[in-house]
Amino acid sequence: MDRVGVMEGVGVVGLYVRDQDEALSFYVDKLGFRVHTDVSNGGYRWLTVQHPRQPWFQLGLFLPGPPIHDAATAQAAQALVAKGAMPPLVLSVADCRAAHARLQAAGVEFTQEPIDRYGTVDAGFRDPSGNGWKMIQPRSAREDAPGKMSNPDEGAKAENRQGGA
Amino acid sequence: MSPDPKLLRRLLRAKDRMDAASHEDWPVRRLAEVCAVSPPHFARAFKQAFGLPPHRYLLTRRIERAAALLRETDQSVCDIAFQTGWSSLGTFGRVFREITGTHPVQLRRDARAAMAAPGLVPECVLGAAHRPDLSIAVSEKRRRRAGGTTSATEPEEVA
Asked: Which of A16, A71, B37, B94 is the most exposed place for a label (fewest CB within 10 A)?
């Protein structure tokens, strides 16, 4: 933080989704995110959600289309999302198995059951549009103080030690 | 013309299922059922969406897993072959060489030798980066190799 208390860093990262209402319901009702901003201007809707533990970071749920994209570009973007071709996303959790049980009961589409790898546990799921998430319980999660954000970097390191499976 | 994103999303489900259990058998009928399309339509649509037929995609995943197990574990080539879904050790060795250009045991040796710190890349991403590039059919690769000049003396044994 700087002297006036403003957190410097990445503030918003956006995902493309095929339907913003559907995405909103998924990220809020199923994953437990909160709506940060939901404003419309004409046909354009700026919609961001945030993780309850990350008040300085917003995840944008954006619909490709006008006025940003022409129809063909929007269609191409939608196809990439639906084919699972968008970049990987990582959600850090304190207890991967518990989160998996909770989210699966809520109807989240899991692509990989929780797997133990050298002290970390990870699972995979997709949002309704096709964006793929890895849900990682970092090795350090149990050592972290309650309420402290897990460090995704630890999870990445641990995954990397596994190499690939 | 690009296909309906809703259809692509369903086809992705078939790909995800193969990713999650590449050692299992995935006949077209089973995959088509996963994404609720007719089997003949499925095979064509999958290839159009992902650039290769479902069976060939499954091969890349199996070889990718086998290569990872060769790099990361001390299991025998035989165990790895059966664990990754091959019912014949001979077929595994042949397809492995045809796809990766190297022998399973040689890949293990090379990987151990090159054991430099690989950096901080999540396993799933690393796996995708190591995925063999199967842009042509295995049989076609074999034909081209047969027509080539240098590689006729590869070792045939697998274990």
From this structure: A71
